[in-house]
Design brief:
Blueprint (H helix, E strand, L loop, with lengths): L12 H11 L30 E3 L14 E4 L5 E4 L11 E5 L17 H11 L7 E5 L6 H6 L5 H21 L6 E6 L1 H14 L3 H6 E7 L4 E3 L22 E3 L3 E2 L28 E3 L12 E2 L3 E3 L14 E3 L4 E8 L2 E8 L29 H15 L1
Parallel strand pairs: 2-14, 4-5, 4-6, 6-7, 7-9, 10-16
Antiparallel strand pairs: 1-5, 2-3, 8-11, 12-15, 13-14, 15-16
Helix pairs in contact: 1-2
Length: 392
């Protein structure tokens, strides 16, 4: 039974810090690698779950998506201020359906349904700030593991089918028993975005009634594809990319790089890399969508990065809030070139700026993939708030 919204518990910052460390989220700023520590109890075999195991849902005890949004803002001069953003009055009238990226440390090619530190940390870092504008629902799914990425099994049809079928089962369970007709925001990153592309294409795009219930989708690092110069017709027949923060039933999508993506980059080019996780192999006449979450145009704009404090320590500063913000540190602009489309992220520190910078930890083929969400998290939460206001 789902507990009332008022009983939803906040997960402690200390607990989530430990989870983030175990999951290796420090890799965004350079400490690459993911620990093999595991916790939690599996709720079934490796088959599709008879009932959904929820990582996040309203009323769940120790919900990682209910982490306090309290944030310490650090300026270029090292000055700090603390604020606690309040939830939007309409937050409980909207659902966010979140699918986490590739984080599982399981040794098999598909993860089981055990809730472990890696999933907890991903949900806290990427989804918990959205609790200010919606109730976050995040199912466990039999995702393609990191082990499958290293052993060459990540694109096997059977492995991808296991991951998607598991997510589809959770989606149908949620829709039948938990949604109750509320409008939905879809949020996914990397493999999570690729699985949501499959889900939206098969379940939402063909259904007028579900499209009507869709507020927007945030699909980052998943290679949403559109016709060259167009905004609909590649990945989806009816769902376009967003042209403003007040547009609804549309997609915000991008992959972030600090330099132009190389020819073999995993993101930014149609039909290759992560595109294949969502079954998109076509290249002719297509490009990967880039929607700037700041300007919704080709013009540059200032990002509002939000990072878990444990992942982004600032020298000589003690930050006690779960979150840290670095205003004015990055700008972003959608760019195209050499067959690629990407969100060009440019750091703009001033001399003596103490704040840490992200870099391409996994190499140029990945760009700033690990930080796709958090580099613009403040913008994305604001975008969802604007889209919800427009929806009504």
């Amino acid at each position: 039974m789902v507990m009332g919204h008022g009983t939803r518990r906040r997960r402690s910052a200390r607990h989530l810090a430990a989870a983030a460390l175990a999951a290796g989220i420090l890799s965004v700023f350079g400490a690459a690698g993911v620990g093999d520590a595991g916790a939690g109890v599996a709720t079934g075999s490796l088959g599709v779950a008879a009932s959904t195991e929820w990582l996040c849902r309203p009323g769940l005890a120790s919900d990682p998506c209910a982490l306090s949004p309290a944030v310490t803002t650090v300026t270029a001069q090292g000055k700090t201020s603390v604020s606690v953003p309040t939830p939007a009055p309409t937050s409980q009238r909207f659902d966010c359906f979140y699918v986490y990226p590739t984080v599982s440390n399981e040794q098999g090619n598909n993860a089981n349904l055990a809730i472990q530190p890696a999933e907890i940390a991903a949900a806290a870092a990427q989804a918990s700030q959205f609790s200010r504008v919606c109730d976050v629902w995040a199912p466990m799914y039999r995702q393609v593991t990191k082990s499958a990425l290293t052993n060459g099994a990540s694109l096997r049809p059977s492995v991808l089918r296991n991951a998607y079928t598991s997510l589809l089962s959770a989606w149908k369970d949620y829709l039948a028993h938990d949604n109750h007709g509320r409008p939905i925001v879809f949020i996914g990153h990397s493999q999570g975005a690729a699985m949501l592309i499959r889900l939206l294409r098969a379940q939402v795009d063909p259904s007028a009634s579900l499209r009507k219930r869709m507020v927007a989708a945030i699909l980052l690092g998943g290679n949403v594809q559109v016709p060259v110069g167009g905004d609909v017709g590649g990945s989806f027949r009816h769902i376009p990319t967003c042209r403003s923060a007040s547009q609804t039933r549309c997609v915000i999508a991008y992959s972030s790089f600090g330099t132009p993506p190389p020819g073999a980059a995993l993101f930014g080019r149609p039909g290759q890399g992560v595109s294949r996780q969502s079954g998109q192999s076509a290249k002719a006449g297509l490009q990967v969508a880039c929607v700037n979450p700041v300007t919704f145009s080709t013009e540059p704009g200032g990002l509002q990065p939000l990072f878990l404090t444990v992942t982004s320590r600032v020298p000589h500063l003690t930050v006690t809030t779960p979150w840290v913000a670095f205003p004015g540190l990055y700008t972003a602009q959608c760019e195209q070139g050499g067959g690629a489309s990407w969100l060009q992220v440019t750091a703009t520190p001033v001399p003596g700026d103490p704040r840490p910078l992200v870099f391409a930890v996994l190499g140029p083929l990945w760009g700033y993939h690990l930080a796709d969400v958090n580099l613009a998290l403040g913008n994305l939460v604001a975008d969802v708030g604007s889209e919800e206001a427009a929806y009504h």
